[in-house]
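sanity check this chain:
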Amino acid sequence: MKLVTQASSAQVMKPQGCTNFKLRQLMRRVAQYYDAELVKAGLKVTQYSLLSYVLKLGPIRPGALAQTMKMDASTLTRNLKPLIEAGWLVLGAGLDGRSRLVSITESGREKRQEAQRRWRVAQDGLNERLGIERVLALHALIDDALELLSPLEPGVDDDPY
């Protein structure tokens, strides 16, 4: 009978492959799942997220919105444009002549509500496909990893869904 030393045991337990790559693969797969439902409401996942954040936090300065959503200002501007053009969001005057505020319109609220029903279908389908226990474990692991990797200010990453 061969005894396993601690060193060889640690080598066996070492993760294989790139964690970043594996997470990106998972994220793409999950995003495709949600996108397939949200497209039925005429939105992408990123657009649904933007509508949800603005509904929850708005009216809000674009810089604060970008910071809260963990995206750079140019990405936010690019993602806001189609929602503003569709009439779901408006970019209006802020408290002074130099500032702007993003707000959701009534048609934006309706679009977000329609998309939320599609999001719920995707969420329930994913829960069914993966199993509730696995989804709960995944959420717990993600929450733990987020806490360990970058302690944030309270409320910064609150889920707007």
In short: The longest strand covers residues 89-93. The beta strands are 89-93, 100-104. The radius of gyration is 20 Å.
